[in-house]
Queue: 3 jobs
Job 1
Amino acid sequence: AAHQETHGFQTEVKQLLNLMIHSLYSNKEIFLRELVSNAADAADKLRFKALENDALYEDDGDLNVKISVNKDAGTITIADNGIGMSRDEVIANLGTIAKSGTKDFFNKLSGDSAKDSQLIGQFGVGFYSAFIVADKVTVRTRAAGENADQGVEWISDGEGEFTVADINKPGRGTEIVLHLREEEKEFADSWRLRSIVNKYSDHISIPVQMWKDEVAEQEGPDGEKIPAQPGQWESVNKATALWTRDKSDISDEEYKEFYKHVSHDFADPLSWAHNKVEGKTEYTSLLYIPSKAPFDMWNREQSHGLKLYVQRVFIMDDAEQFMPTYLRFVKGLLDSNDLPLNVSREILQDNKITQALRQGCTKRVLQMLEKMAKNDKEKYQSFWNEFGNVLKEGPAEDFSNREKIAGLLRFSSTHSETDAQTVSLADYIERMKEGQNKIYYVTADSYQAAKTSPHLEIFRKKGIEVLLLGERIDEWLMSHLTEFNEKSFQSIAKGNLDLGDLDDEETKKAQEEAEKQIEGVLERAKTALGDKVEDVKFTHRLTDSPACIVADEHGMSTQMVKLMQAAGQ
Ligand code: ADP
Ligand code: MG
């Protein structure tokens, strides 16, 4: 072939291929889901580009995917008339993994394939899943709007290299031929493929078609003639966009498969919310909470956001404008009736409709979480363990929903004495002592350090619960939380600790007596410490330790000082 080159796969692709073949042996059929999903994406992308340039349809505007089988040759072909790829795109898309941070992710894998295969769930397996069933894959593609001679052929056995060559391809789009492995020949069967499409790809919004052989003229039961039917392409899926359908007609399985398609995730979602909103702003949202945090959740540069449609037409992936950053783990889509079809990221940036949609979507997610916390504690706990630290960014970012978010937070506390974060503020308030009017907490470098803080002594003695905060983000969180349910928060390591009505008269008297007895000690400590301290005071908050350091009521806490130092301030 013309201009043939051989390329090596990126190291991470080799690792992924290896891992996949070992971990997905019980779930081989998903290769078809992935390839059909890509074909549907390619159709979406073409439709979007054609909004500006109708000529890209090349007189072939019926976008679809065609699946065919050659039993004798042991091949399956998946062909679409979507956007197609140029030579450079083929090399980049089918030879590397685009996500940044992938290298680190793979370096962290243990080499124990059982363990590692769990991790692969966070990773869309995508195109490379073709090699689960095929020992050779041929991709023939031509980008929309290019001449027939701009076709590209990509061939690989999935072992480490692939070739690319120029070909002639009159039809626009991408055709993928899977040469089935000897032991996977069973997939070369129309009925088998049909049932796989029904199972995984029914929700795909363009027709997924398979060839139906001609049927000869027949005689019916009453001797009537049933005319012959020519062979034809027949749709095997519903071919309507899932989110436009009625909720009551959509099964959980369909919602789950749709999630995998839009999120490129491999695992089931934890929960979802599907809503049609009519009135001043009209839109449909389908929002999912993943079950596992992606490996790159802390990389703020990593793409996130919703898939945006306008009047059913795909507009863009990863539209970040519709979700606040503290909900960046949410996946799904938004279909707006109000935004213009030619909307761009710039237009979205500063737009009234965007704001309304963002508020609406935020509200939906918080509601979904509230419901989950109320109705399925175990599920909520698993959400919290994965995403709790992201949600903690909420009170600082989203003033208007501060109280709602606070209600969703979970903490460790002296009540449970485990590092599991299970205590809600409502739980805490319910257990508050008679006369207690504050929510007490302590922040430290770790749960362990918080738990052993000397500041806790008096609280332990009095049986007052204290929240134990040991995560990095906690200090930041607490600096933005002032009250919950009309109870203010109080760090037990800050300033003069006033236990208010919790101290009775008798105790106070005894304390004053005690202070008098050792008056001179204060002066001596002050002289000895000199400039190193602001002040030295008596305290009654300690029961076992002789002394402790406290931060000024209005100044930064010791934790915050450390955070600032770590950030290079
Ligand atoms: P993902 O779908 O998550 O992006 P895949 O591994 O499934 O990852 O596909 C990698 C990329 O290859 C896609 O993002 C797309 O750019 C390209 N691609 C795959 N299949 C097709 C296709 N049928 N038509 C056009 N581009 C495709
Ligand atoms: Mg894909």
Job 2
Amino acid sequence: MLGPVLLAAARSDGIRRAVSAAPVTRSVVARFVAGEQLPDAVAASAGLAARGLGVTLDHLGEDVTDKAQAERSRDACLALVEALERAGLAGDAELSVKLSAFGQALPGGHDLAHRNVLPVVEAATAAGTTVTLDMEDHTTTDSTLAIHRDLLTRFPATGAVVQSYLFRTEEDCHALAAAGARVRLVKGAYREPAAVAYQDRRDVDRSYVRCLRILLAGEGYPMVGTHDPRLIAVTQALAARLGRARDAYEFQMLYGIREEEQRRLAADGHRMRVYVPYGTDWYGYFMRRLAERPANLAFFARSLATR
Ligand code: FDA
């Protein structure tokens, strides 16, 4: 019951201001976010890379309200690419970007987001790394996949994300697998209506397995984004049955979540990549992590109560 309330709060400016100003929040947020500044992100990436883990970095920000903000998001990503190259991390760390941070929701937003993401993908490619387009709520799926398709023609390593809670995703997986793309499969983190998405967790999981099978049997590079132990076991079994070598797919998990399992999978010879968010605009990301797991909310509430 709490999940939908928290996801609604994730989009409320009033609650954003109150939570962001609470003195205790930052120390709690630090569990999920690598830091507020670029050097924090680079240091976290270097630490993970030293332990044999790949990284995908997210400069936090979403739902920008004007073009200048969208351009600042683009510039922050360009600075990130430069910093990764300087630190010698471009081989280990890629970028994850949200097109709403590049203006997708503004008037003319599809073209604006496309224009803003292009130089980031160009710079990343020149530096020897890649970009994955995060997926946001279902109203953005067509636009994001269209921009991904266009980028693929010049930058074939550009990644896409699909969400197993959406009814449409099996079909999207067929198209992406045939295109040979890098595809991250996740359950989905937004509040979606019953007209477009499964509402029961078991249906979301069953859809995840169907999508997984399509991607693992296809021509692309599947990126299995989940912390769910059952889905990790299913992935390993399916990959073995379909003859996918361990370097022909990867697992991905979020920074600060199931870290021991991240290390265990890497030590076991699996490719493991950690999604590392950083920046000052952590509110929406943080609220989605609370919504996923009531235990996280209890942790947050306890730390408020002990101040
Ligand atoms: P589930 O939520 O069922 O969790 C399984 C187990 O994992 C839990 O029992 C618990 O042990 C642990 N766990 C899960 N979430 C936790 C949390 N927040 N805190 C502590 N423990 C937790 N979504 C989206 O809509 N668009 C996107 O682009 C992305 N991108 C993305 C990248 C990567 C690398 C990951 C791992 C996830 C995303 N997501 C996402 C989020 C995704 O949609 C989903 O909300 C979360 O991964 C949680 O779902 P699980 O598959 O982990 O399963």
Job 3
Amino acid sequence: MELKAIFHKNSYQKPLIIAGPCSIETPEQLEQTVKGLVQQGISIIRGGVWKPRTRPGSFEGLGGIALPWIQEIKQKYPVKFAIEVASASHVEEGLKAGIDVFWIGARSTVNPFTVQEIAESLKGVNIPVMIKNPVNPDLSLWIGAVERIMKAGINDLAVVHRGFSNFRDTVHRNSPLWQIPIEFRTQFPELMMINDPSHIAGKRSLVPVIAQKALDLNFDGLMIESHINPDQAWTDAAQQLTPADLQVMLQHLKTRKVHF
Ligand code: PEP
Ligand code: MN
């Protein structure tokens, strides 16, 4: 049976919303968060299993033990589930667990060896993939990662704009540099462009204004971090929204049709 594409332009209602915790922490945290999000009508959940941390010594994700929890969630709730993969073994474990969508994180997109390893492991596999921009503002590196995944035969593809890192603290955790996704889009007008306001903002108060800006620029979707108890989150506590706060934000967003 041919699986229905997620990221093809006529498969979803714009904006496509993907939401879920930065990291999967416990079965209860996962279920309570997913339950809250399903109540808001969200059907694609994100959740970190393997977490690429900048410095060692912080929580690096639960790894494979979280995968059966995802399988249980999918039996109870009508959701598709997206996780980050950073190696061929992550892809293999994720496929075995029936994960629906993979994404390549900003620290992997910078490395052609890593992206190529992931691409090789995806050959002959029919799964939707999202590719985040690299941490540094290098458009070619982002395009190169997309080309490697396309060459592996993946055609259900989206890109995610999550901003670019800085040396000193700035208003944003990661500067949006909107001209980069805009330029990307002029070169790949058919690819779905998703904005990740959570990692650009770094703090909850800034998430709505960034999400609105993305919609004003006609982005196709939003990937937002949501946690049942954000202040207690093991990673990215300052930027996650409760499912209820996410709903309020989504209700206030205005969709516009400004083409670029
Ligand atoms: C994440 O999505 O939680 C994450 C680690 O993101 P990024 O790769 O954008 O830093
Ligand atoms: Mn995060």
